[in-house]
## 1
Amino acid sequence: MKNKKWIVILSIVLVVLLAGGSVFGYSQWQSAKKEERLKDAAKAWVSAIEKQSFDKIPSLVTSDSLKAAGYTKETVVEKYDAIYGGIGVSNMKIDYEISEDHTLSYTATFDTVLGTISSIPYKTKLVEDGDTYKIDWTAELIFPGMLSDDKIRYTVDEAQRGSIIDRNGKPLAFNTTTYQAGVVPQNLGEGQARTSKIANIAKQLGISAEFIEEQLSQSWVQPDYFVPLKTLAYGTEATVIDGVSYQEVQTRAYPLADAAAQLTGYVGEVTAEDIEKDPTLQSGDIIGRSGLELTFNDELRGENGGEIYIETANGEKRATIQQVEKKDGQDIQVTVDAQVQQVAFDSLENAAGSTVVMEPKSGNLLALVSKPSFDPNLFVVGITQDQYDVYNNDENKPFISRFSTRYAPGSTFKPITASIGLEAGVTTVDKTREISGLQWQKDDSWGNYKISRVTETDVVNLETALVKSDNIYFAQEVLEMGEDTFREGLNKLTFGENYDLPLTMEPAQISNEKSFGSEILLADTAYGQGQLLMSPIQMAANYSVFANDGVLTYPKLLVDAESKTKEVFAKETVDTIKPMLMKVVTSSEGTANSLKGVGNLAAKTGTAELKGSQGERGVENSLIFAFDANDSSYLTVSIVENHREVEKTATELIKPVIQFLEKVQ
């Protein structure tokens, strides 16, 4: 009987324990589910704000809190869109935590039109709403301290774009004012008088009457408002036109205009695509579009300043959210000399080509000219379609930067071949070659291919070959030294190298493949043809060895850049070649004899013929490189494309440049 009693007691205890355990377990389960719902609500809110998925907000906040704040599901979305879009919020990152009393605390870091705002603190309650939790919303969740009827305003203090200046501080690109032509509607009259006046305005400004009518029909236009029609390019006079008024506006100016267009480039107003790529940009911002303006856009543009603040319904400032001091853009100083640039541009006359002027000791590029060209000032104010078509349809392609475009260097390259031959011991001063006729081929294995020369000389030595520019002599020399020796010498130069210049330029090349693959190509390369390609800048750099006792100076375009050099040839080699290059000018038989008396020059001319097959007469590019033989104060390379068409050679056209350099050195 006693045992039965204990069994009953134990059974009761077990039942009580099991019941208690079930209650405890259920409570724990409920608590875990509650914790999960809190986390889900917080995570959903943070995700919506970070991703700016504002359409999700109405489902994440309590209806009562929206109503209390005076908002509807639609207007709260509109508010977020207007504010965040208006100040350019992007790259939102949020760190958050949930406290025991269901308070959601988070800090937000994001970018605006004025830069980055870090760790803005937010706090709200997570309120149970049915089987979920939702945000207890107030306007302070847009920005702390904000009330429901407040607005967000911002002002921008625009940074001044830096200037591009030459070595002497003269502007190549700078900020200035120009005139904007427009009309005041009430001054146009009515009926036929108005129609006639608009037609005349359109003709004088180079725009259409339809465009003028479109501008006048804009919703904001009032009878006494000034309606802009056209901004005049820098340097354009504001002429008197019946019905037209003018106001001054800021613009970017390029005083050398087409003389330095490919170098400076130009700026333009941002597009929707630009803003999509960089949300910190705003409509109306100006950025670099080409040339140095594009390369150094970040440095030139600077950083806008301004203030983002909360404004009360009464138009008063409640609190500052972000305030940034503007940082004006940096000036970029280049080694170019504006005067030399202009003279070099003018000297090319109506030819298509390029002239580069360099200081061979420092590497400073004094002029980078490409012709034909375009006026960058027109692009700043908005080039008309007719003006653009003139440039775009020009077969000589004025938008190309010819100073960084690769060409066959022609016979200007022969001193390089001669120097390699001298250092290899194949070429000597006393060695002669007997050559008959104006054409030559090694043997019948060359088929119909023959190498031509201009002047027939039976006995040719190194000096004669340079002075008279004998292709056959250099072809025979390079065939004797062989490809391995020749390439070894060429590889001491800068073939295949990228220069540290703020310009787009493919490296100079010796040949399309790592080996010539034929004796004909090897021979052609000796006198600057074949597949040899060099830009005028690369020619100037590699030819600097003759002005620097065998040391190559790399070109530089920024004043504060360091000069860089490397030894290529022995001084004795250059001492042998240099007097011969001087005779190219002083000798009556020299190909640059027309420059005799202009200065104490060393030079080498060249002609690179571009033709489809042997026997036909192709397009000829005329080239010259020349340098000051006294103290190497300057070196210039010039190329004239299809010189027969302009009936002048590069040697003839470079004369004014050398005369100017001689005068100012």
Note: The chain has three domains: 2-149, 178-249, 338-664.
## 2
Amino acid sequence: MSEHVGPTRDHVGDWLSRVQYVDPLPLGRGRRPARGSAAQSASDWEPRYRRAVIVSDVLATVVVVGVIGGLFGARGASNWHDRWGILAAGTEVLVLGALAVGRAWHSTVLGQGAEEFRRLGRSLFTAAVVLALGGIALTSHNIRLWIFVAIPAIAAVTLPERYLLRRWLHRQRQDGRCLLPVLAAGSVATVRDLIARTRKSPHLGWRVDAVCTVDGRGVDGDGQGGDHVDDVPVVGRLTEVADHVRRGGYRVVAVTPDPHWSPDRLQRLAWHLEGSEAEMVVAPVLMEVAGPRLHVSGVLGIPLLRVSLPTFTGVRRAVKEVVDRVGATVLLMLFAPLMMLVGLLVMVESRGGAFYRQRRVGKDGREFTIVKFRTMVRDADALRAQLADRNEGAGLLFKLRKDPRVTRVGAVLRRFSIDELPQLFNVLTGSMSLVGPRPPLPEESAAYGPDIRRRLLVKPGLTGLWQVSGRSDLPWEEAVRLDLRYVEDWSLALDAVILWKTLRAVFYGEGAY
């Protein structure tokens, strides 16, 4: 680590997904944390939240099994009730045991990232498989009720329950509570970047309460040396990190890049932190890769970061294709009445057809025709040149917050993304996916450099990271970065999270105009 390189947003997010949750006492500007205050707060907060998750999962499992027993318990042979009691108890034990063994209750994954839901789903699937194998061994026909009804019902209850608990936790963090006290140790530039990112995204659970730099100095508002970094006190030098952690009760030591950090010094810091409650998190900052492609392995006693190649084919991609087609079919049937009503309103308000067709660029640079509800007056494309000097879009995008070409019905459709529903036909025909990068215009694609063209390695999406992160409010560089991150770090779990977050973004009309 010989260069002063700032940590990326993905690295910060990866750090935050590994930590636990605390509720430290608020610190005033420039005030050093009281000895042991953060640790005491952590001992109060973390077990309570973890117990709430465990109790809610246990109650959900018991209630679901009880309801299913009440609905189906009177059926079958005369000894059904005895068998039901055994199968019910066995189902409960298997589900709760799988959650414990699968570390679905581990505090490092609760409340942050997709890993919590991934472990929950994997544990429930494991319980179903074990239950099926037990039914085969016991030649029991009644086992199907518990495999195909009980466990899916438990999943249908526990997933929303976990989400509601997480939403409550995030609201607490937005108010400055339930944040993990962090000591950041590195160069002033990289520490400042970390502080800015944690303040921008408090729901991730970090709050930088203290800083250590190589010379024990920070930077004041005029850029000169001082005893703070962006209002966070500098408590010492990088050689004193372990001592300050033990005195201050910090739960995370975030090591950011600085020439001081050699492998030897990092190892000694890890040794000195043994016995404390602090977790050391190191930002490699070698490349913008996170998620399922990043693995840590040991070779000849040396810890190595292994980056697997992005997958553009294979079983997971085939599953994504099936999910896209089935999902598009179901959504089209579900929204058919709404789409017919919207089409009628569009034609009533202004002359022209209900649909707007436009050429876009898809996978591998192949062009296709995208279909949307018309939200502008007829011949709006011809009027674009007259508005070019008022463009508010970022980079290659043309956007106006108050575009005079947009109709009244069109403004409502855009706000709630209803105008994009016809793109489900594009998903159904295979030119688009439910989740993916934003489909660019041919003139945008022609201006792409080699890096940005990697967006075209996968199908464009009806929604994506760009939509759940601000949509039109995003700077061009940020929108490109999010699309490239999706291309590189794609997974089925990430798709599921994006689809879920899209519902919230659409409901609140965030960044849509």
Note: DSSP finds 15 helices and 14 strands in the chain.
## 3
Amino acid sequence: MSNGLGGFLVSASIVGAGLTGVWAWPHLQEGGFQSLAAQAASLYHGAEMRLRPAIAALQSPPDLPGPRLAGPAATAESLPPASLSAVQPLRTEPAAPVVSARCEAPEGNQDTAVAGDRVQLRIFESSVLAAAPAPEGAEAPATDIVFERLDLSGTYEVGATGAVSLPAIGHVDVAGHSLPCVEALVSRAAFERLRTQNTVSAAYAARPPVLVRGAVRSPGAHSYNPGLTVKRVLAQAGALDDRDPAAKVRLIALDARRSELDKARVGLTLERLRIEAALNDRDTLSQDDPAIRAAVTLLGRDRVASEGNALASEIQASRLRRAQSEATLADLAARIESARRQRDLAETQMTYHANRQEHQSEMLQSGLVTDSRLNDTAVRAMDAERILLEKEDLLFRLEAEHRAAAQDAELARVDRIKALTAELRQVSAALDAAGSELDTVLAELNLYENDGLRLAVTIERPGDGARVQTIAADADTLVRPGDLVTVSAEAAEGEDLADAVRSASPAIIRSALKE
């Protein structure tokens, strides 16, 4: 009996030691003996709290006859304090972010967001936890946990409507607002949609360039910097005025371009005259035309002769194709006429044999002809009918071939007219473009030569949707990203630039004859 009890106790102790090792080994690996001791103390404290009522009942038994084992005072001294500090719950109600009144409307001429900006937004969410238990008389501060919402943070582009599109938040209008207001607006939108306490950090990742055109040495796209003014834009692009050392170089370039455009316009006019003559089926160019004389003066007789040769070749080829088509159609018409006569003759023979066969059939009943003679007449009638069908088939085929040849000739003529018309349209478009550029060059030359050049700047600023705001700018006007800055030359003494352009816009040939 004792051996059985001893074996059970040994087995129980081995199992208990194994379970204790399984429980203690992870804590020993993570924090060492200190962590193991803290876990053991925590288990002891929990077990003591659960067993406290039973222990109190055992230490304070009901009054029984006999001597007391311990006094009430000794029992009370061994018990822990009755009051325990309660753990406060998490504070889950976030406060709404405050947006200043200036962020509720566009902020005017400040450095604000525009359509095309790429804004980098970092959104941080914060949670406030209750304070840990503190000694009596001391106030423990609350614990804040702040973490970045990587699912919401990122770089976003301001669309044409002036809004950025954020995941789980939606569209937030930021155009016309500075970066602090962008942060406040996005924070308010995140609070209204997600009901979380958050803070937002905003910065520009990329901004649209400023576009400059007109009387500058370097037109095109220029980078934007905060505080950029018209004066700085003109300094970057290299504005031209009457005091610029490059004005004389510009004047020489304009004069060369004017001469080049003049020659180009005369050449295009000569090509247009050739095409118009080809459309009217004329094989020569009129030498009395002022355009021809101007072309001889500017381009030389060889160029005029080459255009005349091209016209003659075009007309000759067109007339040859037309003559071939007419010959083909005439031959087919003659063959059709011959086939028609042969068909009429075959139809006459078939009618004769048919009547003869009918007459011999009547004579056969009277015994005036034999059956063999009637059969011979019937065979001849069938041959005549077969010949008539062949002649009609030949006539139909010749008529179809004649119609096809006529259609081919008409299509060739229409295709030639279409090709010449398309070429004339291209030449006219090029002529108009060269004329417009020549007018601009002549106006600028006129202003340079009058020594009265000054600059005027206008800014075209994109607004909501397709709306564009035009601003008459001065040197201190602030420029925003995406603005189109137009630098134009004006007369210094109040001369209207439009009048100067109109007075300096000669006709195509007249400008060439001035040389």
Note: The CA atoms of residues 263 and 298 lie 6 Å apart.
